[in-house]
Automatic annotation (TrEMBL):
SUPFAM superfamilies given in the database record: P-loop containing nucleoside triphosphate hydrolases
PROSITE patterns in the record: HELICASE_ATP_BIND_1 (PS51192)
Domain of life: Bacteria
Protein name: DEAD/DEAH box helicase
PANTHER family, per database record: SNF2/RAD54 HELICASE FAMILY
Domain Helicase ATP-binding stretches: 18-183
GO molecular function: ATP binding; helicase activity
Alphabetical UniProt keywords: ATP-binding, Helicase, Hydrolase, Nucleotide-binding
Amino acid sequence: MTPSLNRELLHDYQHKAVAFIKNKPSCGLWVDMGLGKTITTLTAVADLMDSFTVGRVLVIAPLRVAVHTWPNEISHWEHTQHLSFEVITGSPAQRHARLNTKADIHIINRELVPWLVSTLGKHWPYDMVIIDEASSFKSSKAQRFKALKKILPKVDRMVELTGTPASNGLLDVWAPVFLLDKGERLGKTFSGFRDRYFMGDYMGYHWEPRKGSEKEIYERLQDVCLTLSAQDYIKMPQRIDNIIPLAMPSKASHQYRELEKEFLLELEQKTVEVNSAAALTNKLLQFSNGALYTDDKGAFETVHDTKLDALEEMIQEAAGQPVLVAYNYKSDLARIKARFPKAEPIGHASDTIDRWNTGKIPILLAHPASAGHGLNLQSGGNIIVWFGLNWSLELYQQFNARLHRKGQTRPVFIHHLVMNDSIDVTVLEALQNKRITQKALLDALKKDITGRLAPDLSLRPYKNFQLITIKGLYDE
């Protein structure tokens, strides 16, 4: 396809970000979903290569983003189409063959970073590395982080892209920032960073920032990170978040309390037993959604249909409008498909996204981990139902951004099915607290279009949450 997009179509904030990348050998672009961070970064790459500042570039991204988003953006813009690229995926033999191509840009999924570093060894050819969704490198214990750490001396330029730099709190920022500055700003080790800026509980499981440490962290990152918020630069569609409280049937409620208290529950077919608090948390989330796994092979037993009934009512109220449903467990997926035969999982079919965006799929089922990055679904609908939440703010925000993004022409409704007096409420509160922490970080580093630090913004819980009670469905 002949490119019809050109550099003149870039927004002022994108030109600002391009200049930031070019002027900072290592930098983080903490940019909201939908602000065009891919073409922004590619524009900087094109300029740096045209000026012979950079020789070869490696892009690390989630698999779907690596295979589709980056190649499409390179090809569709006039000022980047001259850049040659190769996607390093496939079997080991295919990867080796593609690795030997002399393309300007090599694109690889993040899971293959250890393989790449091991394969290339001392012959590392890339003087610029771009990490898309850099929050996936937040663990200093992960093999992908350790692999990249080895080749830092060979890299002249590093760019990190993410919209969720601190999805679980400020402890998340150490590893990505280390990859930018080798420990200059936040210290050489994670433990040193943690002990300096945070205070742990007596078991060492929970860490809170020490007094004044948040401000110090913000100040240390101001010169190396640029944050851009969608609400500051583009007109976003209205977003309405609905919390739909649900009540378990009496029998299920008693079973839930028994499991919560005794770590043991006798079901009709099998006894479920858990041996740790973490395992119990997982079981309670399963129970809230309506089914419990009874072995490690995927067998499950239904304990209630409360959320299925609520989802059915939501779909009826949608009156034929397409609905995007987020599920948490494979048991959720199986039960939803059984209740709604026309529902389709997002899967790996190449035409699923096209059929959704053209209105041919009435109910699209997706796990946030498989539909959180690089998918444009806004043309297909404006209704999201969270059948089951999980603890990840990053997945939560990325999933919602599949519909709530630039190009969406209708208000976006995000419905949360929340079981009263259950772990669902705890998860929702945890997501809210994580959002506040991350927003504080992003606001502290926010600069206006001239590059000056923007004034602090107040932190408030969501003001447009609407509480909806579905009456009459579960009365016994």
